[in-house]
Structure to design on (284 residues):
């Protein structure tokens, strides 16, 4: 299986255009923030120390969430490429086990998503420091790395399962376009979650990717929030947390962080199981 994983990684990184498009949503959002979103959100808390660093941490957490989704999606599409180009028939005619073939697609997609998002974390931290923020502590970095890996695992499981139903590159392109278009809204970057209608907020809160964004924001914005809202009434702080998607409330009850972790872990476990079942079933 190791050789299959290495082969899938080479296929992904060899197509530089595909790598670029997998990061396109991240690049677009970054440019939007650099050109005008940063000033818009920072002006919402004028003349407050650390406001720009706080909003920079907010947007960077969203970008890391986006990267964990789009890069994984692009890497997972190798599975459909192989099917469309009849390469899968060569694998199926070889002594390679069905489990090894399925596992290679899953693991290579996870490795691509994790690596690209962790590289994004390094760039995000550099950007935050450049804008007057502070580097995360070692403990915070470890927690954030864990969330990134869990988010990538959840996205990998979902897209591998979804792609077991697709047979053409055109279908994958449609999924990529939809994901790239919607992901900025689902993670609350273009419009803060608190600004969305309640029905839409309910949909957002039900999506695993949104819980990944919540966890990343909680970690990356802990210190900036403490600086900006030092001495502010708790009611004001709670309103900001809800407005900018640093926590979710359901029926008036705040969801603790471990619930978001469990949702991501359960999503990964369920969809990995369904993916393995689908791929085995299809190949019998």
């Amino acid at each position: 299986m190791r050789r299959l994983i290495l082969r899938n990684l080479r296929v992904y990184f060899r197509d530089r255009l595909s790598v670029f498009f997998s990061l396109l949503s991240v690049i677009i959002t970054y440019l939007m923030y650099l050109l005008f979103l940063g000033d818009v959100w920072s002006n919402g808390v004028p003349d407050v120390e650390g406001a720009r660093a706080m909003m920079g941490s907010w947007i960077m957490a969203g970008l890391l969430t986006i990267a964990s989704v789009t890069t994984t999606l692009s890497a997972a599409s190798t599975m459909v490429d192989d099917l469309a180009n009849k390469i899968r028939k060569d694998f199926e005619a070889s002594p390679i086990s069905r489990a090894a073939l399925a596992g290679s697609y899953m693991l290579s997609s996870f490795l691509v998503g994790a690596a690209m998002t962790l590289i994004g974390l390094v760039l995000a931290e550099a950007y935050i420091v450049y804008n007057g923020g502070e580097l995360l502590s070692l403990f915070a970095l470890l927690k954030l790395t864990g969330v990134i890996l869990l988010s990538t695992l959840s996205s990998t499981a979902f897209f591998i399962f979804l792609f077991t139903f697709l047979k053409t590159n055109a279908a994958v392109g449609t999924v990529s376009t939809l994901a790239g278009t919607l992901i900025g809204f689902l993670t609350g970057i273009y419009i803060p979650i608190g600004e969305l209608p309640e029905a839409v907020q309910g949909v957002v809160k039900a999506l695993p990717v949104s819980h990944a964004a919540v966890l990343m924001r909680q970690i990356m914005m802990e210190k900036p929030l403490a600086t900006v809202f030092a001495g502010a009434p708790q009611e004001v702080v709670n309103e900001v947390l809800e407005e900018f998607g640093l926590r979710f409330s359901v029926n008036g009850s705040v969801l603790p962080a471990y619930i978001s972790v469990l949702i991501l872990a359960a999503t990964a476990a369920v969809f990995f199981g369904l993916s393995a079942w689908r791929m085995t079933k299809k190949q019998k």
